Amino acid sequence: MGDGPVLGPAQIRDLIAAYLPDPPGVDLLDVGPGGLVFVADPAGLTVRPGGTVSGPALFAFADVAGYLAVNAYLGGTPSAMLTSSSISFLEATAPERLHARVVPERIGRRTAVVSARVESPDGCPVALATLHFSFPGRRSRPGAGAR
After folding, report:
1. Which CATH topology does 27-134 take?
2. SS3 for 29?
3. Which residues lie below 8 Å from residue 140, measured CB to CB, with a gap of 6+?
4. Using omega within 30 degrees of 0 as the cis cutoff, is the peptide bond preceding 9 cis?
């Protein structure tokens, strides 16, 4: 597997349009050598009393960003599913254009592990997630499972 995603920015945006509801609330901000950066529309973030973004909204953003990154690195794998995760909420934040910097830790034939760092627009860390995905629709070798 190469170092970067196999899909370019236009193809990743096509995935967002195909895989997420309309309007998706998430867009691609940057593709770089260290990973991908996605941005969340503040209108799509659930806000708790007191004006801070809810934990479930932060987790959902990290999950979607991780899912899109895995698909960008594998060339489109809609069957990718989250199998386990952990998240640490680091700082309360108001609803704003949050960024998720997703770095692939391991991309394999059957599983992937990515880290997603959710940040405020000024770079303040808000949450850090580790996401494990599996690909039940992918085969590890040609003809596996065929009868």
Report:
1. Thiol Ester Dehydrase; Chain A (3.10.129)
2. strand
3. 109, 110
4. no
Cβ atoms of 55 and 63 within 8 Å: the answer is no
Query: What is the C-alpha separation between 22 and 111, in angstroms, rounded?
Result: 28
Contact in structure between 101 and 37 (CB atoms under 8 Å): yes
Q: What is the pLDDT of residues 12-35, one digit of tens each?
A: 999 999 989 887 899 999 998 889
Report pLDDT digits (tens) over 96-124: 999 999 999 999 989 999 999 999 999 99
β 35-40/26-32 pair status: antiparallel
Contact 69, 97 (CB under 8 A): no
pTM over 0.85: yes
List, as one string, the DSSP characters of 57-126.
Answer: HHHHHHHHHHHHHHHHHHT--TT-EEEEEEEEE-----SS--EEEEEEEEE-SSEEEEEEEEE-TT--EE
- Tokens coding 88: 């640490």
23 in helix, strand or coil? coil
Q: CA 84, 48, 28, 12: dihedral to nearest 10 degrees?
A: 50
